[in-house]
Amino acid sequence: MEKHTAEITINLNEKQTIVELTQLLAPFKSDVYLVNRSGGNVVEANVKSLLGLVSLRIGNGDRVTLRAEGSDAEEALGKVVQFLS
Question: Are 35 and 43 in contact (CB under 8 A)?
Fold first, then answer.
């Protein structure tokens, strides 16, 4: 199983929504997890999970870690990085 990671700083424009992000990953077999360590808490969620993303409470300027696992992990991770930064 492929595994890839990336660290990015969130930089969303006001037109982007987390619903779009979950839809972007729908065609991929791999799972992508986002880890938010801001505010003294560590919260991780699968990016395909709308509820999980809401629980992360990410905002512009947050430094997060992305981890992708699966047969198309590299491509899925690239899409998330592009969307969030």
Answer: yes
Residue 22 contacts by C-beta under 8 Å, 6 or more apart in sequence?
47, 48, 49, 50, 53
Which pTM does this prediction carry? Answer: 0.89
Angle at 69 between CA 25 and CA 18, to 5 degrees: 30
Query: pLDDT for 17-73, tens place per residue?
Result: 888 998 999 999 999 999 998 777 888 999 999 888 888 888 899 999 999 999 999
Q: Which CATH number describes the domain made up of 3-84?
A: 3.30.1340.10
18-25 and 73-84 helices, crossing angle to 10°: 160
* For the chain, domain boundaries: 3-84
